[in-house]
Amino acid sequence: MPVEKIIESVHPETPGSASQVEQLKGAEQKIEKISTHPAEKLREIIKPITKTSSKPTRSSAANSWQEKRAVVIDNILAEGLNDIFLKMNASEQKAFKLKGEETVTKINELLSHTKVKVNKIIALIRDWLKLIPGINKFFLEQETKIKADKIIKIKNKF
């Protein structure tokens, strides 16, 4: 209210003292800051939300256990494949890593459902392991089954 009184007491047409003009300018700037500040805050808050995801957001607790489960799934899938991964060339490593990350997210999503579809998990792991050049089909099936069994066991933990 005191800001409005200062503005009302000094008219722009009538010249006033320098201190009154400075007070008027300061008051106008404060009013502008106060009036635009919440809108700018709202825009800053809304922009990151609309850019990051179009899906409804989940609570941080839900994200944390899903992230932990994703890390565990990633560790299970990576078990015993370090030597094989290092023998690949750079382009094969990149493709293998990208497909592995996709597989982890899809398996994590499948485990979130009430009914776990083991065949889909096995198919995802098998398709990912097929990227290994010169892989033995028996090794492929054995590794797929072992990794799928370990992943199914962690479903109840998270």
Automatic annotation (TrEMBL):
Q: Where is this chain compositionally biased, Basic and acidic residues type?
A: 1-11
According to the UniProt record, where is the region Disordered?
1-21
Could you tell me what this protein is called?
Answer: Uncharacterized protein
